[in-house]
Amino acid sequence: MPQVHELLKSAHRGVLETGMDLLYHKEQQIPGSINYDINRYYAHSEWLADDAGMMVYHYNKKKPKENYLELRFCIAGNRYCFDKSCESCKNQPTSCNGKQSTVDVFNFHFSYTFLNQFTQNTKLTNQKDEVLAFRHPNAFTKVFPICGKKNHVLDSILNHSYTGALENIYINAKIHELLLLSLDCLIEEKQEGFNCKFLEDERSREGIYKAREILLEHIGDPITIKELSRKVAMNECYVKQGFREIFGTTIFDFFQQQRMEHAKYLLYEKSMSVTDVSAALGYSSISHFSAAFKKHTGLKPCELLK
Q1: Would the pTM count as exceeding 0.90?
Q2: Is the same domain home to 29 and 165?
Q3: Which of 97, 154, 202, 281 has the most CB atoms at less than 10 Å from its CB?
Q4: Residue 199 included in any domain
Q5: How far apart are CA 100 and CA 24, in angstroms?
């Protein structure tokens, strides 16, 4: 069995060379967006390697727009059933093969263009900021263990009930969360606990995660922070502070970012017109949408149409 580090270096190709059967495949290749490749394989024999992640920082000072950050993960021991209707079955038929042990391989690619939006006019205070802004002067590859939080996010990317456009919105949000968690591995002395003491209460943390879910559900029907706070039964100040600490961004910036990422999907993958995308995202005019899209991506919406 090849070492997990070698599998991470070669992404899903290394797993294919082991003769495993592909159970699930999903990919996205949208210009200027998060591009990813997700593969789930049936492991014919027991997988002995530990779960691991890898960060690949590609840096070329002479060609800055070709720089990119890549996250790769290899997870083993999850279970997969070919007949999803029998997941709750307690007495499987004798002809059923039952749930299979899997090896899940993820590859997420973040371009210079995509990450640049997070670091404009931002003071760089640590290596994490330097990497996001591609100001760290040397390329590197770092392997790190998978904590419970990352494992939970990866599992939710594979196992959810969303379909179509809602699936795209959900996966993009989860990948952003995974990026934030993975960048923490660059800070050797990460502070334990929360700066916002109210987040030490599990119900408060659940409220912040619920707030994010509500924002994603209203991607085409924006709501105010006052309405959002009422829906999660939390003080407005707590919602804003907690959201920034857990997700590393403001509510407004998160919502706008998710809105524009979904716009890319609708334009490029669904070939919707600029007019229809503008309306679907709740903009009062095409000009307002086009200006927001250009500010966020550096492109005019029509440039992403196939």
Answers
A1: no
A2: yes
A3: 154
A4: no
A5: 13
Q: What is the CATH number of the domain that holds 287?
A: 1.10.10.60
Distance of CA 304 to the CA centre of its chain: 21
- Check whether residue 182 and residue 273 sit in a common domain: no
State the total domains in the chain: 2
By C-alpha distance, which of 139, 146, 60 is closest to 104? 146
The single residue listed with the structure tokens 């590197």 is 140
99 vs 87: CA distance, rounded Å: 9
User: Considering the domain boundaries, does residue 206 fall inside one?
Assistant: no
Would you say residue 194 lies in a domain? no
Read off the tokens for 250.
């403001």
Q: Are residues 183 and 240 in the same domain?
A: no
Could you read off the pLDDT of 180-190 as tens digits, one per residue? 889 887 765 44
Encode pLDDT of 133-191 as tens digits. 898 888 998 888 888 889 889 989 988 888 888 899 999 999 999 998 898 877 654 44
Token pair in block for residue 225: 């922070």
Query: Which residues share a beta bridge with 78?
Result: 102
Strands 68-80 and 100-111: antiparallel
Q: Which residue has the tokens 């492109």?
A: 299
Do 64 and 139 touch, CB atoms closer than 8 A? Answer: no
- Asked if residue 215 and residue 137 are part of one domain, the reply reads no
Identify whether the C-beta of residue 101 lies closer than 8 Å to the C-beta of residue 41: no
Instruction: State the Cα–Cα distance between residues 145 and 60, nearest whole angstrom.
Output: 27
In three-state secondary structure terms, 31 is coil
Assess whether 73 and 138 both reside in one domain.
yes
**Three-class SS of residue 134?**
coil
